[in-house]
Amino acid sequence: MKSLENTFKKRLLAGETLIGLWSSLCSPIAAEALADAGFDWLLFDSEHSPVEVAGLYPLLQAAASGSAEAIVRPAWNDKVLIKRVLDIGAQTILVPFVQNAAEARAAVAATRYPPEGIRGVAGSTRASRYGRAKDYFRVANREVCLLVQIETGEALEALGEIAAVDGVDGVFIGPSDLAASLGHLGNPGHEDVQRALREAVDQLRLLGKPAGILATSPEDARRYRDWGYQFVAAGVDLGLLVKAADRLSAQMA
Ligand SMILES: O=C(O)C(=O)C[C@H](O)[C@@H](O)CO
């Protein structure tokens, strides 16, 4: 038995634009249903949802049969959390709150087995197909896709050095946190924030590093895609559910 190829990474590095959905629901039923909704990727967020590593496991299992590639956002740039998320079979991870090149290098090291990094070794995990993937240790480092998240003005200042870190495959800009950091909490649509988002993608394009972002409306998602963001979450599952429920109840009022 062979290791699974990371097709998200392959497509991203080939320059494809990949449209995804952000998942905060922490529901294996929702994960299974959404994984076949036609998105290229589905991100399970354990930073801003109540799911822990044990709860991520059934989400990854549920999404595995679908056409969307699973991505996990660990709660923090923490080598233990990253190791545990990789062990349960996530191949692509989005590491939040990376502020400078040193933090980006720490994230890279956490995702790599020695000698390239410091990831701890487990014999039988979902990642190694329970030890049956004979090529696993040979290809594991290569198949990890590391996306790092920029969330502050300080991190934007360091964008060039973060993007240049070997092993960083893509840079995701978090509009909500960036808005807060730039003094516009709750208003990522503010012109200062939008200008910063546009300048960030322009800079990343010049550096040849894929840029990602989260939108909460199709209009925003299309605009970000048109600006050159290459992996774009077009919405959040919980938000979609709430909007649809509110609309239905209003129609019945
Ligand atoms: O800054 C952002 O934007 C994010 O990090 C995404 C948020 O955590 C949130 O909107 C996800 O539901």
TrEMBL record:
<dbReference type="GO" id="GO:0016829">
    <property type="term" value="F:lyase activity"/>
</dbReference>
<keyword id="KW-0479">Metal-binding</keyword>
<dbReference type="InterPro" id="IPR040442">
    <property type="entry name" value="Pyrv_kinase-like_dom_sf"/>
</dbReference>
<dbReference type="InterPro" id="IPR005000">
    <property type="entry name" value="Aldolase/citrate-lyase_domain"/>
</dbReference>
<protein>
    <submittedName>
        <fullName>HpcH/HpaI aldolase/citrate lyase family protein</fullName>
    </submittedName>
</protein>
<feature type="domain" description="HpcH/HpaI aldolase/citrate lyase">
    <location>
        <begin position="19"/>
        <end position="243"/>
    </location>
</feature>
<keyword id="KW-0456">Lyase</keyword>
<dbReference type="Pfam" id="PF03328">
    <property type="entry name" value="HpcH_HpaI"/>
</dbReference>
<dbReference type="InterPro" id="IPR050251">
    <property type="entry name" value="HpcH-HpaI_aldolase"/>
</dbReference>
<dbReference type="InterPro" id="IPR015813">
    <property type="entry name" value="Pyrv/PenolPyrv_kinase-like_dom"/>
</dbReference>
